């Protein structure tokens, strides 16, 4: 009989947030794949659990090599529990490769729902939550970071990002440059921990605050772009948006179509703007 892969959410701060089923799965799994085995040991001790199964490391550095081993364990009938340092596996953490490989072999995949920094920050931000998208970590290099932000400059859904504390001021400054200093945002720091803090304000204001130095685990929530009518987007802006998408690797035809939808104008309007810009040099 084929085994089961269990993705288990772990506390993002307060250990009391651990779901009751987490302790059961930790105690009964045949194999526990942990992002950091030392943190796993602290977690099991805090929950008063003694794992009966084998514990192996499963992190970014060995994810590709260890995935086939774990899949064979699953095909052989093992119950494999995957845990990361905090939150749900696969969400900016190891897990996607293993899930994809398990699904390909018809292995049952289930989850122990648990804490999520993405949803917690979104709920606390005070920004619209009916539609949102998670963008993970931005690139470390300034140019690549600006390019990624420009790709979503017109995104109307609320945006959620993870960021390292030592890069927060640069990231917020880049967001203020691309999205506008007045665009609303929220910096959620040390969620569910003793020094939890949610700082809300315009991106320019938040960037100035972060320049003084910020510590802890950071999640940034940014308001989506305001809706614009066709008359709000001129030819130069349409051409700029097409160029940004082309630089990101899109073909011109697809870029023009996407910008037309984004700006709420016919594709012919965008096409004519691009042709006119090309003729003018």
Quick gist of this model?
Catalyzes the 2'-O-methylation of the ribose of cytidine 1402 (C1402) in 16S rRNA. By secondary structure, the protein is an alpha/beta fold. It is built from 11 helices and 10 strands.
Give a description of the structure.
This protein is α/β, with parallel strands linked by helices. It folds into three domains: about 5-115, 3-Layer(aba) Sandwich (Cobalt-precorrin-4 Transmethylase, domain 1); about 120-220, Tetrapyrrole methylase, C-terminal domain (Methyltransferase, Cobalt-precorrin-4 Transmethylase, Domain 2); about 230-280. It has eleven helices and ten strands. The strands form two sheets. Strands 3-2-4-1-5 form a five-stranded parallel sheet, sandwiched between helices. It has a five-stranded mixed sheet with strand order 6-7-10-8-9, with helices on both faces. Strand 8 and strand 9 form a beta hairpin. Helix 9 (about 235-245) crosses helix 10 (about 250-265). It is globular. The mean pLDDT is about 95.
